[in-house]
Please model this.
Amino acid sequence: MSRDDLNPIIREAFGEPAEATDAQLLQDLQGQYPVDEVYAQFASLQADLKALADIPECQLTNERLKSAILSRGVKPKATLGWLRPALGMAATVAILASIWQINSLQPKVQPQQSEDVGGKLSPIGQGFAQKEGESDYAELLGNRVAEKTDQLHTALEQAEQDAGSALASQQTAPIRYSAKRVASRAVTRKASDIDQIAVVANLAVGSTLVGLDPSSAPAGMSTMALAGDQSANKTAMRGKQSSGDSVVVVQGSTAPGSSVNGAVEVKQDEVVYGG
Amino acid sequence: MKLFTAVSFLIALSTCMGQVGRTLPIGQDMTETWKGVEPSIARLLDESGQATGIATLIDAKGLFIAHRSSLNGSQAIGLLSGNIKCELSLIAEDKQTDLVLLQAKDWTEVSRSPISVSTASGPKVEVILASAAGPLKGYLTNRNQIGIMDQTGQSVPLLEVQMETPLYPVGGAAIISKSGELVGIIGAMLTSPAPNRIDLAELSRNNQFGPRGLTVTYAIAPLVLDRVVKGFRTESHQVLHPTIGLYWRKSDDGSIVVDRVAPNGPAASAGIMAGDIILQFQAKPVTDPVELAKLLFEKSPGDQIEITVLRNGEQLKKQVTVDVQSASENN
Model:
């Protein structure tokens, strides 16, 4: 799916005004690509970024999210196209080869009725015969075929995935502008923090905060204000954040226990400025 | 265990009560300053007589400036020194800063001097916070922050004020310098971070957070406050904030990228588009988004700005005329 093909989907996913040709383009694409899946991926990525971003909601504009998503590149489920028949043929050949291999064992198994038949068995049949005996052999052979088939299916699935990844990587990432992923970086950092949230919550609730080993602090955590019920301890906050690396986002909602607006400090690189 | 919990609760309660009842004194020299400005400060009372905030006299005609949060509705009773009361009505509002203009009805208190706007500087300057609870001691820090207003998305210069009065209602308090001039009006307070934002390393070294910690608040810097006061003093009471309708951020590669432009705004009219990389401002390279914000703070409506952007590998010079931000302009 080319970037031009993606554009009408992007416009729809991000609520941008549709262009005159969008409806026709989307209709044409429906027959060739999983348009609905691509649209769903854009929409879910947008929601995920909003949920994970470590910055105030007011700073997560549609434009910014779009930039983050597009620069990261969306890899819709690959359509195998002409590779599908080829893979099908390869699978058929592999299955036939496997059946031939299994059938080739049969004549060697049948002489099992003689006393020395065990010594003539192929390693596979020998193992079965020695362990289970003749009456169970057919069942074990069936299991073996099933096992082989499973392996083939697994191999095929892997091949499909590899082919899909190859196709996806060949698709040009739809980078509209030279903007890099700001929000996605925040998400990356936040993702590493998520595992630590429970730990932090437990520690924050606990009564023995003093004396914690500083090295136990999650590395990904941003240094923000430490606050009491209605106030924040700026002294603590400044340990890592120098005066130059944060900006204040004045929120529309009031601060708890106060009639004035709340404010949060955010790293300079994580906000959108207006002027 | 229950006894321990009960005792802990009582200790915490007594601590809080002690804080609420304790008035931090202002210094002797500041006491003289307070005496000079007190006649120009009105405590705002609601219908039930409860103090909701303060307003500061900025014009001899009986015009008071206050923060929007200090007002319940559009009317208030102003309680002046000497137990003089006056009726105050909301007549103008600046949405960019949440500051409002109040007009006193039948103003006859002409002996009360309007307070002028000024700056106070220094590494840590002691100031008076004229709050609904009375004069409080505060400190202006030298952290001249850049603020971003959630409601409008606009960047504004902020003053940071710290005080050792965590439980006082300091919202809307007027910041008075030692020379008796208005430096700012408190409009925001640093709030508690989300649990995952607490830095444990710092937490272990500092056992100061909680009721006995500092309160960190923010006020619009005098640069903007002066503009608001001047606008309020005009016949139309309109405040004209400059804008070019441009929103930008830092990209991963360190460049400044245009996030979006306000529809029909000056930047859009000049042909600047989302995704453009800002290279120069007035022919000087800019790489820091904060620096760009500060450069724009200095501009006034009508100024011409040349912004050089990079688009598809091509450098483009755009001429932008600084316009006036309409009150309704929003994100």
Q: What stands out?
A: The longest strand of chain A covers residues 246-254. Chain A has eleven helices and five strands.
